[in-house]
Amino acid sequence: MSDTGELRRLARAVGLMAEWEDAHGRQQAVSPETMRVVLGALGYPAATGKEARDSLGRLREAQQAAPPPLLTTFPGEALRLPGARPGRYRLTDAEGVSVEGEAVPAAGGARITAPALPGYYKLECGERALTLAVAPPHGHRISEACGGDKAWGLAVQLYSLRRAGDGGVGDYLALRDFAAGAAAQGADAVAISPVHAQFTADPSRFSPYAPSSRLWLDVRHAEGESLMPNAPPFVPELAAEWARLEALDLVEWPDVARARIIRARQLYAAHLQAPQEALRDALDAFRTLGGSSLENHARFEALHAAQLAEDKSRWHWRDWPVALRDPDSAEVARFAEAQAEEIGFHVFLQFLADRGLATAQSAMRDKGGRIGLIADLAIGVDGGGSDAWARQTEFLSGVEIGAPPDIFNTRGQGWGITTYSPHGLVANGFAAFREMLGAAFRNAGGVRLDHVLGLRRLWLVPEGASPADGCYLRYPMDDLLRLVALESHLHKAIAIGEDLGTVPEGFRPRLQETGLAGMRVMWFEQTSRGFKAPARWSREAVAMTSTHDLPTVAGWWSGADLAWREKLGGGPKDQAQTRLVERGKLWAAFRQAGVARGAAPPLEDTAPVADAAAAFIGRAQCDLALLPLEDAVAAVEQPNLPGTVDEHPNWRRRLGPPVERLFADPAIEQRLRGLARARRAP
Q1: Mean per-residue pLDDT for 523-530?
Q2: What is the pairing mode between strands 119-125 and 87-92?
Q3: Does 568 lie in the same domain as 637?
Q4: Which of 62, 343, 562, 573 makes the best surface tag, with the fewest CB within 10 Å?
Q5: What would the pLDDT profile of 50-100 be if each residue is shown by its tens digit?
Q6: Considering only CA atoms, which of 308, 309, 374, 302 is closest in space to residue 338?
Q7: How does residue 117 score in pLDDT terms, banded at 50, 70 and 90?
Q8: How far is CA 670 from each of CA 632, 655, 663, 676, rounded to the nearest angstrom?
């Protein structure tokens, strides 16, 4: 067989797609050079035909040697155990209750019948032990959480919230008051922007979708005064900086992060000097529960700061001294011992963040919200962060994830982030994926999975290459969907999959079978004749006016998004005329749905349009309608403008009024009443 033939055999076995269909429906072939680079990054050298054969042999040998550490199945299904011998087996559930049975012969191993109840089980068969994940037919659905009612809620960028004394950024205390206030208005859910851990040592990093860790939280939103009644007062200099930042319309992330860390260090010092027994015990319990994952993250944070202080070029952990690149090395252990107080500080920060988020969830549920917070789970992490450092065998390296060329991005996209290796996941029993889901569900009543198509395939771009020179890598979708359904079931929390844009045929029905609600955004619910009536939107989905990456209703109506396109040198020449026609179609859809009357208002009169849009998604058949806070307050500017870095103030805009007065604002109150009324309409 030729070298190219050997290469394609290996690529197929690894899960690389040698061909893919572009946005125009044309088949595209991946170059042999790209396949070799990506295969090498995945740990399967293929520079020559011999290397490709050897890599394929290693892969098949590993696959046939023994069952993987974790198998997924459904209740009562026949389950084959590759490489296992027939005979007695024992199953032990999470409560420690064991049952025994007889594994019967099967091709290439043995076969058992899966337990009747969903859950995680320890399976012992002969000398082998593995984990069995028995998934329910579907996860916890919105209809189950809300008793079949058509529910509604709000979506908020956490940083955008205001409260008195917040120091320039929305925090978990503001979220608590916002969530409680929303529930008091009848909301069942508040979807929040990602709160994954960022880089404390580098406050210039603030994209919520490129975090350091998806297992831990963004401590820049933490506050400790609510947990420490005897907290020390602000020193005058910090109080002045706090007030300056609070008065700004945009979040100054570097300054905000520095100020909040200074304040947190004051609180930590006060705790060490005179610990309150209840706080100390809660912190100790939190640290014990966090285990090695929390310790590794805290160690990374301290190491990252120490390495940057020594040499600014050591931002990425791969540029650290060799001994520090391994989280289990003796050198890292010695560092942790010498810097115990600093590492304890980072544990303290995570404790404050966890308590803050938990309090917000409890506040909403206590006020009657049947779902509560919906956490946002980013598709990946920065390869230089704590997750990638601590779990190197489970992450891709040497590649970034992105998107192939399409109509809007003719060169493709590189997102500058990485994610799990499918082979690393299987080899490690999906441990990192399960922990990530558990962390997301921990203080929430639901989770939104960003770019849910990534459970099936991801576009990989070799480091330094053009995004156009990438290829798709398949993921074990069946296993991943079962694990999402199981975690959703165990936490009694809903799961939402961001499925916007073009997805493969059959993918959305598969999500619905698993209990993952899709997303239906007003801007995309159109045909060539106009906007779809909300009564025709999918029931098992979430209705929204817009998202963080798209224009707000007021911005779209007034043409603010077109102005940004023109400013940045993009957009078709006839976009203004096209928008004029689209406005007419949208207003006609509003009138037909019974949420607007009379002639369309002028461009500058956006309030009636925001009112109508809120009621419009309220009329949707979807089980849940989420109104972005930007549209609740009729804001013109959107949170993020894709394709920009410094040209647009992404992830920085703050919204008013403060949460203390937000729901008393007559215009906002009227808009939410219209949404709630529409949800109750037959």
Answers
A1: 95
A2: antiparallel
A3: yes
A4: 573
A5: 999 999 999 988 877 777 999 999 999 999 998 888 999 999 999 999 999
A6: 302
A7: very high
A8: 10, 18, 10, 10
Mean pLDDT of all residues in 610-633: 99
Q: What is the Cα–Cα distance from 445 to 372, expressed in whole angstroms?
A: 5
608 in the same domain as 660: yes
Total count of residues recorded for the chain: 682
Residues 51 and 88 in one domain: no
What would the mean pLDDT of 206-224 be, rounded to a whole number? 98
- If you average pLDDT over residues 266-275, what whole number do you get? 95
Tally the domains of the chain.
Answer: 3
657 upstream amide cis, omega within 30 of 0: yes
In this prediction the pTM is 0.97
- State whether 27 and 127 are in the same domain: no
Q: Is 440 exposed, middle or buried (0-12, 13-18, 19+ CB in 10 A)?
A: buried
Cα–Cα distance list, 616 to 272, 536, 579, 610, 668 (Å) = 54, 12, 19, 10, 16
Q: Same domain, yes or no, for 14 and 57? A: yes
The residues that bridge with 134 in the sheet, in sequence order, are 73, 119
Confirm if 385 and 373 have CB atoms less than 8 A apart.
no
- Tell whether 125 and 16 lie within a shared domain: no
Task: Give backbone dihedrals phi and psi of 435, rounded to 5 degrees, phi first.
Answer: -65, -40
Q: Would you say residue 534 lies in a domain? A: yes
Are 548 and 640 found together in one domain? yes
The answer as to whether 639 is a domain residue is: yes
Average pLDDT over residues 640-644: 92
What domain range is 675 assigned to?
Answer: 520-682
Backbone angles phi, psi at 289, to 5 degrees: -65, -35
